[in-house]
Amino acid sequence: xxxxxxxxxxxxxxxxxxxxxxxxxxxxxxxxxxxxxxxxxxxxxxxxxxxxxxxxxxxxxxxxxxxxxxxxxxxxxxxxxxxxxxxxxxxxxxxxxxxxxxxxxxxxxxxxxxxxxxxxxxxxxxxxxxxxxxxxxxxxxxxxxxxxxxxxxxxxxxxxxxxxxxxxxxxxxxxxxxxxxxxxxxxxxxxxxxxxxxxxxxxxxxxxxxxxxxxxxxxxxxxxxxxxxxxxxxxxxxxxxxxxxxxxxxxxxxxxxxxxxxxxxxxxxxxxxxxxxxxxxxxxxxxxxxxxxx
Amino acid sequence: xxxxxxxxxxxxxxxxxxxxxxxxxxxxxxxxxxxxxxxxxxxxxxxxxxxxxxxxxxxxxx
Amino acid sequence: xxxxxxxxxxxxxxxxxxxxxxxxxxxxxxxxxxxxxxxxxxxxxxxxxxxxxxxxxxxxxx
Lengths: 294, 62, 62
Description:
CATH architecture of the largest domain in chain A: Orthogonal Bundle
CATH superfamily of the largest domain in chain A: Ypt/Rab-GAP domain of gyp1p, domain 3
Distance between the termini of chain B: 94 Å
Largest interface: B-C, 28 and 27 residues
Order of helices and strands of chain A: HHHHHHHHHHHHHHHH
CATH class of the largest domain in chain A: Mainly Alpha
Helix content of chain B: over 70%
Strand content of chain A: under 5%
Helix content of chain A: 55-70%
Largest sheet of chain A: none
Number of strands of chain A: 0
Radius of gyration of chain A: 21 Å
Largest sheet of chain B: none
Number of helices of chain A: 16
Order of helices and strands of chain B: H
Mean pLDDT of chain B: 83
Strand content of chain B: under 5%
Number of strands of chain B: 0
Structural class of chain B: mainly alpha
Shape of chain B: rod-shaped
Low-confidence stretches of chain A: 1-18
Mean pLDDT of chain A: 92
Distance between the termini of chain A: 9 Å
Oligomer: heterotrimer
Low-confidence stretches of chain B: 56-62
């Protein structure tokens, strides 16, 4: 398909006039009509293209295993998911862990803790640890993307679990990878970050543990999460690289690591769509575009 | 086709099992909470008795 | 043979479902018990307060 010059011409044309999404949406609709769904094809699609927002939640649910590939089973499985949500949340209410005014994100955290047998004793409450805080940050962002609380809990739960299982071993190496790609893109900026001591105190937790939740606004964030959910944690590195490149001039003027950290932790929200677009291009450039037929 | 039927059944079974496992975790959490409450009740009962005794003594004429 | 596989899958799903329902009854019973305990604790707490108040008053000089 990709070799067809006619098609390439057409895609390029659409891209220019802003209709790029039309063709992609059609091809996704074809993939979504398959029964059972071809999960491989769906992940390839999400790796290559941004998901149309009307299909995003559905595709995420399939990719995260919240819905099985067989569409005939979706009703039955959705009912199980709903019941599981209700069972856990009502038990937490009975145990007085949560009340009517408890924020949804805190409810999700308690549910997640209960499911993992990590619920603290009510008589001995402990402050939220790093993992709890990461979970809460991801929940807060997911809440902005997903309206339905049942869907939202399941998406956070499975996102966090899948991220840990699939990428848990790779995450500690991402800062090194960032250094590598930054050296290729802008050695001068890297040298500055190194010499000022900032390189070791970049907001790695925000970037690589929270996957930019609380850093990027949802419209940009969901395009990054499309890639993470469909199987890439490398994309996180390229988003970080593009953030650094976009604010190069400003960063070159900060000589204190705390200053760099603080600026990057409270990133201006006006330019993030462009940053993500560039990051995805850079990621495709370095890691190649998945070439399965879609 | 047979594989397909099996895969579909597996998907449904997994969702059902996950729901069951969650219930088991709920049971455990509830039991822990109940246990704590019972021991709290016992402590309170015994301290209430301890409090009640001197109070009774105080009402007695000396 | 296909029917066989389907029947087996259905059987497994039903077994899982009934395990779930059984566990669910357990958690409902536990939740009821928990509710009762909480209200008992609250009654005791409030009666403890009620008892403590006149006692406090009694120590005040008249």
